[in-house]
Amino acid sequence: METTTDIFEGKHSLLITNVVADGKAVDIFIDETGTIAGFGEYERKEHKGDAEFIIDGDHALALPGLVNTHTHAAMSLLRGYADDMILQDWLSQKIWPLEAHLTGDDVYLGTRLACLEMIRSGTTAFNDMYFFMEDAARAVDESGLRAVLSYGFIDLFSEDKRETECKATENLVTHIRNMKNSRIKASAGPHAIYTVSKEGLEWCAKFAREQKIGTHIHLSETEKEVQDCIARYGMRPSAFLDTCGILTPRTVAAHCCWLDEAECTLLKKRGVSVSHNPASNMKLATHRAMPYPLLSAAGVNVCLGTDGCASNNSLDLFEEAKIAALLQKFYWNDPTILPAQEALAMATVHGAEALGFATGGLTVGAVADIVLVSTRRVCNTPLHNATSNLVYSCNGGAVDTTICDGKVLMLEGKIPGESAIREEAARASYELVRRERYS
Ligand SMILES: [Zn+2]
Questions:
Q1: Ligand 1 centroid vs 57 CA: distance in angstroms?
Q2: Is the N or the C terminus of the chain less surrounded, counting Cβ atoms within 10 Å?
Q3: Ligand 1 centroid – CA 216 distance (Å)
Q4: How far away, in angstroms, is 211 Cα from ligand 1 center?
């Protein structure tokens, strides 16, 4: 590396030398538009004179940036605030009362903290659903990451509330369009079938279709959700959502623990992507693992998510890939299910496909969303099989360089402004708890 003075300022042409991708030693040249313009064994000869900065990869493993397909980023402020409780009590006694005191500034600072954690652990894109999303968008814009942002639409079956939620969804889409930032997209975010009326779901489906945007929803997280749906609508959740028009190739459905076989076939038919959130499911004890064998047999695009930080409690997708592989093997009683290669694909290419970011992996012409995982770590020693180490022994702490859209966000473990982001988020979190306590 020539200098660190302003590699973090804006985009530069970059030559990354001496990294390993798919088992081969390569150099990667990224042009000033943020596109991979050279990829191979001899790029350093070809592009040495063109690059403003040269990053010595030092035998690191180069991967496409990881993609977190379900989270509530600003919930990073609630990390460790309440654990080990029954889902309903956890929500009604701890999470919702605190969230009632959230401000736009809190969401901005919490999202900044989440982005910092994602950059540090190699995630370059995420799918977010929360409130005060204009403030979240500001944090994402500054962070350099990619995101799809949805306002969590919750009408609680009330017509008045529905109007407010429709307006908030429309406002967010307009706001994000006006930002003109190609890294940030809006989507519709009907929270779930137990918090949104049929009319609300139908409105979201129509709106998403008209605006040509995605839809982000929680689906079949608990058995109660399935049973209540059958009692209320006479059909299982996926079939019901289909009648509302929610299931499309631009839809990401999170959790999906309680799907049956017919629902897996239906999701495939509609082109829906399923986001597996194994840590959150185990922590809140959903009592059934997402049926990966059925979804994979049906050919559904299955990707990975961490869920919000209060139910995980980290945003580290490397850890999530390991937990996914282990949970699937354990729950379905078969160690051949979800091998490391598939778990890593869920965290990378399948996630990019789900969010419609044509990041395309590590090839010439693809946008440069690249992370470098150090091989000078215990977790990568010995290195018989890079994929095995990445999923089963390393976590996000082994990432030392993160590049998104051709811009360097972390270099050799260094992220500009990190301590201020941490300190301001911590202060906002303690202040939020204080407001709730004395309200
Ligand atoms: Zn969630």
A1: 36
A2: C
A3: 10
A4: 23
